[in-house]
Every structure is written in C-alpha cells, then in structure tokens.
Design brief:
The protein is of the alpha/beta class. It folds into three domains: 6-89, Orthogonal Bundle (Arc Repressor Mutant, subunit A), CATH 1.10.10; 94-165 and 269-302, Periplasmic binding protein-like II (D-Maltodextrin-Binding Protein, domain 2); 169-265, D-Maltodextrin-Binding Protein, domain 2 (3-Layer(aba) Sandwich), CATH 3.40.190. 46% of the residues lie in helices and 21% in strands. Strands 4-3-5-12-6 form a five-stranded mixed β-sheet, with helices on both faces. Strands 10-7-11 form a three-stranded antiparallel β-sheet. Strand 1 (51-53) and strand 2 form a beta hairpin. Helix 1 crosses helix 3, helix 1 (6-18) crosses helix 4 and helix 6 packs across helix 12.
Length: 303
C-alpha cells in the first residue's frame, strides 16, 4: 500500500518543473533539507528512485519520466476539486432544485428567485411547481432539498419553518352580486354554484373539514385539478370558489375579483419544508435566508 502524500507529489512535480532543488525550495517555501526529505519519503514509498540529483540540476529516471505526467494530473485534479468546492461554498457556481406549490410558485417565489439571482448570478435554479402533496413527497425522496408549501403537520422525518399564515378568500367573477359585500359569509356562498379542487387536495380537505365541523352546505357544481383552471372557470361566470390568498395576483390577472371570507375563517400556515437531521447546502440555505427575510414584506406588497 502506497502512502504518498499530496505534499510529496507537489514537491516532486515542482522540482521537475523548475529543474533544480534550489528554485523548487523558493517556490514551495521549504528548506532544502525539508524538500530532500519529502522526495526521499516519496521514493521510499513507491519503491525506487524518481530523480537523479546533481550539483545544479535534477534528472528524471526512466520511472520518474513515466510517473511525472500522472503526478501532474493528480495534482491538477486535487487543486481543481478544491477550487470547485470553494466555488460551491462561496456561491460562485452551482445548482439548486426546489419544489413549490403552484399558488406560491406563481406569486411570491419569482420575487425571491430574482433577489437570489441578483446576488448569485451563476447559480442555476430548477423549480418544480407541483401540488402541495407532491412537494412533500419530493423532499422525502431526496429529489429536492427544500419545498415551500403548506404545513404538513407533525412528521418525524421533516422539519417545517413557518413563514406566514394564508387566510383563504372568496373568488368571484365580475359583476357578481356578492361583490357588494365587504366580507362574504358561508351562507351567502352556499347560494351560488361552487367550483372546488378535485380530491385528493390539501386545500379541498381543509375546506371540507370546515364545512363538516360547522355543519355548512355548498353546492359543488364543478371540480378541477389546478387552481389556474378554477380561476378561468370563475372568470367565465361558471361559479365562485374559496382559494388561498396566495392565488390573488393570478386570479386578478384572469379578471377574477376577491373578497375576505367571514367566520369560520379558513387559514393554513405556509413555510419551508426540509429533511430533518440533514443540513441544507450553502446554496439552499442562501435561498432560505432570502425567503425568510423578505416573505412578509413581499406578501404585504402583493396581497
């Protein structure tokens, strides 16, 4: 087994490149005895002479000439590996994959990514905008380091960092009679066709639980899988819905108007989910820091 060290390899390559021990000592900041010991230990470790040292120059042995390109390549790989690692830690390059539920991905997340990219332009970010349940599954499977989603509840394998609570709102088409109300009651909502998310959906589950707990009734006329689809259906006068406040900018872009929901309120915490006991990479932590620092301000600005 060979116990050659990087220090010994660097000493050997530097002697060959400089042509003599004296100049190599200057380049390596070593005394001549220290350099001689490094070369001697390398040769003892590999079992033979690599250099023939004369008064003014050093000449490679045949074995030394054969080994020199390999030693140089090993040193380059070593240096490149640590340079690459330093780039990752200093955020000079890298990539990051995150998951986000669509209501967050289409509203607040682009602002966070813009702030991050302004500071770290060479980091590539891939966003998986999937339903809330899938964001959790992606974190668990290790496909992404973090997800921005609704609070998944108590989980032994996950950590949740709350950002804010999202109070659900009533989404209405233009000229709807309920637009005259400052706040809209569940009883008033029940008088009109309701457009709901399809099951399974954490939003649908939360609304269903509220309905059952308060003995309310809704007339579900239509169902869809995507919140964007529901927004378009509302704009086409097909009905009304209850949706997260995060959807408000997207709804407004579709011509949908929004009003607060009267008690019982529907609210759910939004935050960052990561694997428990596994630290985030430097890149992921930098994005998390931006999200934590700016989430409330951006939330107020957009909503």
């Amino acid at each position: 087994m060979n116990n050659a060290t990087i220090k010994q390899l660097r000493a050997f390559v530097t002697v060959v490149d400089s042509g003599n021990f004296a100049e190599a000592c200057v380049l390596l900041h070593l005394s001549q005895p220290a350099l001689s010991i490094a070369i001697k230990n390398l040769e003892q470790g590999i079992g033979g002479k690599l250099l023939i040292r004369s008064t003014k120059t050093s000449v490679l042995t045949p074995e030394g000439k054969e080994f020199y390109p390999t030693a140089k390549l090993l040193l380059n790989d070593w240096d490149n590996a640590f340079n690459d690692l330093n780039d990752l830690f200093s955020l000079k390059r890298g990539k990051l994959e995150v998951a986000a539920m669509p209501s967050f991905g289409s509203s607040l997340l682009p602002s966070y990514i813009r702030l991050f990219s302004d500071q770290h332009p060479n980091i590539n970010i891939k966003v998986h905008d999937v339903i809330a349940e899938d964001t959790i599954a992606m974190v668990r499977a290790g496909r992404v380091e973090l997800a921005v989603t609704f609070d998944p509840g108590e989980c032994d394998d996950l950590t949740f960092y709350p950002l804010f609570s999202d109070n659900f709102i009533v989404a209405l088409p233009e000229h709807h009679p309920l637009l005259s109300c400052k706040n809209i009651s569940w009883q008033a909502i029940a008088q009109y066709p309701f457009i709901a998310l399809q099951k399974p959906s954490s939003i649908r589950e939360l609304i269903d639980k509220t309905i059952i707990a308060n003995k309310l009734q809704l007339t579900i006329a239509f169902e869809a899988h995507q919140l964007a689809t529901i927004g378009k259906m509302i704009s086409e006068q097909l009905g009304i819905s209850i949706m997260p406040s995060l959807c408000k900018p997207q709804l407004q872009s579709q011509g949908v108007l929004c009003r607060p929901l009267k008690s019982p309120l529907v609210s759910r915490r939004v935050g960052i989910v990561k694997k428990r006991r596994i630290p985030l990479s430097t890149t992921a932590q930098a994005l998390v820091n931006i999200i934590k620092a700016h989430s409330k301000n951006i939330m107020d600005e957009n909503l």
